[in-house]
C-alpha cells in the first residue's frame, strides 16, 4: 500500500519531463466528467497525460491543486499546496535537523483514492516524501 501511494506521489508531483500537455478537447469525456463532478469550482484547469493517466492542474479556493485520474476516469490521488507550518511537527523537526537553513520551495498534502495522506516537501532539486504521521519515507531527486 505504501509503495502504491509513493508511486502515485512521485508520478503526480515530481517534475514530469515526459508528460504530454493536452488541450481540453483532447481529454476523454469520461475523465472530464469525473473531474467536473469532483471539482466543480476548479478554475484555470490544465491537463497533462503520462502513460495512461491524466493529471489536471487547477486552482480552487485560491490554492493550487492537482488530481490524477486513470484512463477510466477513476480518481487516483489529489494534492494541494499547503504552508510549511501546516506540516506535522515531526516533519518540521526532521527538516530542521537534516535540512537546516535550506529554503522550502513547495509543500503539498497528497491524498490517494483510499484516503491515505502523504506530504511532499520540495527543497532545491529534491522532493522529500513523508507519510500522514510525518514519518520520512523517501527522497526523490528531480
Structural key phrases:
alpha+beta, 142 residues, single chain, nine-stranded antiparallel beta sheet, Nuclear Transport Factor 2, Chain: A, elongated
Indicate the overall shape: elongated
Biggest pleated-sheet summary = 9 strands, antiparallel
In the residues, how many domains can be counted? 1
Give me the count of strands.
Answer: 9
* Rg: 15 Å
In sequence order, what are the helices and strands, one letter per element? HEHEEEEHEEEE
Q: Termini separation (Å)? A: 23 Å
**Per CATH, what is the topology?**
Nuclear Transport Factor 2, Chain: A
What's the helical proportion of residues?
10-25%
- Please state roughly what percent of the residues sit in beta strands, choosing from under 5%, 5-15%, 15-25%, 25-35%, 35-45% or over 45%: 35-45%
Please state the oligomeric state of the protein chains shown.
single chain
Supply the helix-strand structural class: alpha+beta
What is the arithmetic mean of pLDDT? 89
Task: Count helical runs.
Answer: 3
The CATH C-level name is Alpha Beta
Low-confidence parts lasting 5 or more residues at pLDDT below 50? none
Amino acid at each position: 500500500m505504501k509503495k502504491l501511494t509513493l508511486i502515485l506521489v512521485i508520478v503526480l508531483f515530481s517534475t514530469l519531463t515526459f508528460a504530454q500537455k493536452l488541450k481540453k478537447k483532447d481529454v476523454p469525456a469520461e475523465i472530464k466528467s469525473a473531474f467536473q463532478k469532483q471539482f466543480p469550482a476548479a478554475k484555470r484547469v490544465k491537463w497533462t497525460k503520462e502513460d495512461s493517466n491524466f493529471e489536471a492542474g487547477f486552482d480552487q479556493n485560491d490554492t493550487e491543486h492537482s488530481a490524477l485520474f486513470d484512463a477510466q476516469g477513476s480518481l487516483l490521488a489529489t494534492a494541494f499546496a499547503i504552508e510549511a507550518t501546516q506540516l506535522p511537527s515531526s516533519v518540521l523537526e526532521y527538516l530542521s535537523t537534516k535540512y537546516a537553513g535550506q529554503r522550502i520551495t513547495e509543500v503539498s498534502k497528497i491524498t490517494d483514492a483510499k484516503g491515505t495522506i502523504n506530504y511532499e516537501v520540495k527543497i532545491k532539486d529534491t522532493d522529500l516524501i513523508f507519510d500522514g504521521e510525518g514519518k520520512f519515507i523517501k527522497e526523490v531527486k528531480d
